[in-house]
Design brief:
single chain, mainly alpha, 8 helices, 0% strand, flat, G_PROTEIN_RECEP_F1_2 domain-containing protein, transmembrane, transmembrane helix, 7TM_GPCR_serpentine_rcpt_Srt
C-alpha cells in the first residue's frame, strides 16, 4: 500500500496495464455466475451474526472494559475483511474481472483484505 500512496508513479510502472486494450483484458476474464453468487451468499451469511454481536459490544456497560473494545475492533476488522474477501470477490467473479479490469480497486482491496 505504501507503493500506491507514496510512490504512485512507480506503482503505475509496476502495475501497468497498457500492454492490451480494455476490450482485450475483458476477453481474458472468465465469468463464473455460480461461484460468484456462492461467494456473495456465503459472505452475507457469515457477516450477519457480526452485526448484533458488534451492536451488543457497543453498550456502555460492556464497552467500558478494555476486552470488549479489543473484541469490537477485531470484529470490525473481520466484518470488513469478509466484505472484501467474499462480497467484493463475488462481484468481481460475476464480472469476470482480471487484475487490469479494475486495477486500483483490486490493489486496494487486496491490501485491505489481507491485513
Amino acid at each position: 500500500m505504501e507503493l500506491y500512496i507514496f510512490r504512485h508513479s512507480e506503482w503505475e510502472t509496476v502495475y501497468n496495464c497498457n500492454i492490451h486494450t480494455e476490450e482485450r483484458w475483458q476477453t481474458d476474464g472468465h465469468v463464473n455466475y455460480p461461484l460468484g453468487y456462492w461467494y456473495i451468499v456465503s459472505g452475507v451469511i457469515y457477516m450477519m451474526p457480526y452485526i448484533p454481536c458488534l451492536i451488543v459490544m457497543l453498550k456502555q456497560d460492556l464497552f467500558r472494559n478494555s476486552c470488549y473494545k479489543i473484541m469490537f475492533f477485531l470484529g470490525l476488522i473481520d466484518f470488513v475483511t469478509l466484505a472484501i474477501n467474499a462480497v467484493l470477490t463475488g462481484f468481481l467473479t460475476i464480472q469476470g474481472a482480471v487484475a487490469c479490469s479494475y486495477p486500483n480497486l483490486i490493489y486496494i482491496a487486496g491490501c485491505t483484505g489481507m491485513c
